[in-house]
């Protein structure tokens, strides 16, 4: 049995999978705000609750914001700042009395879709999250590739490619730079652009509903968003050239974004043709927690996590 934990800003979700990827149980608890020790105890309690109900002990994988710094062994780049500078994987291994594998939550999303999701038949998969932030993960032969600096897949903190005059230098990003892809393609970024365009403040879901009803402003905004997404994906393809790109996160549920997207990406990619596939995530919001469980491999994939530190 594999237990996956998705450590989010507002909730901690746990799942147990059997060897075939069937979900045996799912549980959620609130994330303690700003309290590291309580966060550790909440994760430990969730694991114990799952094991008690199933009367079985499992391996534990954790999807977390940020990444383990190869320099310090501590969490870095987490938007849940209470985690930064902490040995999260070591502390959880100690509390659980067993090795715990930890990966960035976007990597877990990508792994889930590569193992038994939309990209399961592809060799090289790039999974992207379009939500409150913009993240990504690279999977090759069902192995997480996190890189020497543990930042593989952080396409959201590159500048928007081929910017026009109105897009340069772009908005300030929390990373300290301006014009990052995340500032354009995140949910808050979409809402800001819609307000600039129409004067109305709406969430992405409501914008999509208006577009579906034929609202001119909403349709214009989604066309603008799709063009920016196409440019950003083309730059990923020019560097990685994956077999498939999997879209996840709340904005991936806007069905109209997929119409004509591949053709727009092809117009920017450095190739005379493009056979890359673009899929919507098969497991939806469950991909992150399922991917955390898959940090412990299937028997026929003995190196499924090439980057998560085991202690």
Short précis:
This protein has helices spanning 36-54, 88-96, 105-116, 181-185, 187-198, 204-212, 216-240, 261-268, 287-293, and strands at residues 2-7, 11-17, 23-30, 59-64, 67-68, 75-76, 100-104, 124-130, 134-140, 143-145, 244-248, 277-280. By secondary structure, the chain is of the alpha/beta class.
Textual characterization of the structure:
It is a single chain. With 311 residues, the chain is α/β, with parallel strands linked by helices. The protein has two domains: 2-108, ATPase, nucleotide binding domain (Nucleotidyltransferase, domain 5), CATH 3.30.420; 120-281, ATPase, nucleotide binding domain (Nucleotidyltransferase, domain 5), CATH 3.30.420.40. The protein is built from nine helices and twelve strands. Strand 5 (67-68) and strand 6 form a beta hairpin. Helix 6 (204-212) crosses helix 7 (216-240) and helix 7 packs across helix 8. It is globular, with a radius of gyration of 19 Å.
Q: Mean pLDDT, rounded to whole units? A: 94
What's the arrangement of strands in the largest beta sheet?
Answer: 3-2-1-4-7
Number of domains: 2
> How many beta-strand segments?
12
CATH class of the largest domain: Alpha Beta
Low-confidence stretches: 306-311
At the third CATH level, what is the topology name of the largest domain?
A: Nucleotidyltransferase, domain 5
Oligomerization state: single chain
């Amino acid at each position: 049995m594999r237990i996956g934990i998705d450590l989010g800003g507002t909730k901690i979700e746990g799942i147990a999978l059997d060897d075939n990827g069937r979900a045996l149980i799912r549980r959620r608890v609130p994330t303690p705000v700003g309290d590291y020790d309580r966060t550790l105890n909440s994760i430990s309690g969730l694991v114990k609750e799952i094991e008690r109900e199933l009367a079985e002990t499992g391996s534990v994988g954790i999807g977390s914001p940020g990444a383990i710094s190869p320099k310090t062994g501590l969490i870095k780049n987490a938007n849940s700042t209470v985690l930064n500078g902490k040995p999260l994987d070591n502390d959880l291994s100690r509390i659980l009395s067993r090795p715990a594998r930890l990966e960035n939550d976007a990597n877990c999303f990508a792994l889930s879709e590569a193992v038994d999701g939309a990209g399961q038949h592809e060799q090289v998969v790039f999974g992207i999250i379009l939500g409150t932030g913009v993240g990504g993960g690279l999977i090759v032969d069902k192995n997480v590739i996190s890189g020497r600096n543990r930042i593989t897949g952080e396409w959201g903190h590159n500048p928007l490619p081929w910017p026009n005059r109105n897009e340069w230098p772009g908005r300030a990003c929390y990373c300290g730079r301006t014009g990052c892809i995340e500032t354009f393609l995140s949910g808050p970024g979409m809402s800001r652009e819609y307000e600039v365009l129409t004067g109305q403040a709406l969430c992405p879901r409501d914008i999509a509903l208006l577009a579906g009803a034929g609202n001119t402003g909403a349709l214009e905004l989604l066309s603008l968003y799709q063009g920016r997404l196409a440019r950003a994906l083309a730059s990923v393809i020019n560097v990685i050239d994956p077999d498939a790109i999997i879209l996840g996160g709340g904005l991936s549920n806007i069905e109209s974004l997929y119409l004509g997207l591949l053709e727009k990406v092809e117009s920017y990619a450095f190739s005379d043709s493009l056979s890359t596939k673009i899929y919507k995530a098969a497991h939806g919001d469950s991909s992150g927690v399922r991917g955390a469980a898959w940090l412990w491999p299937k028997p026929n994939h003995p190196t499924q996590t090439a980057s998560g530190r085991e202690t």
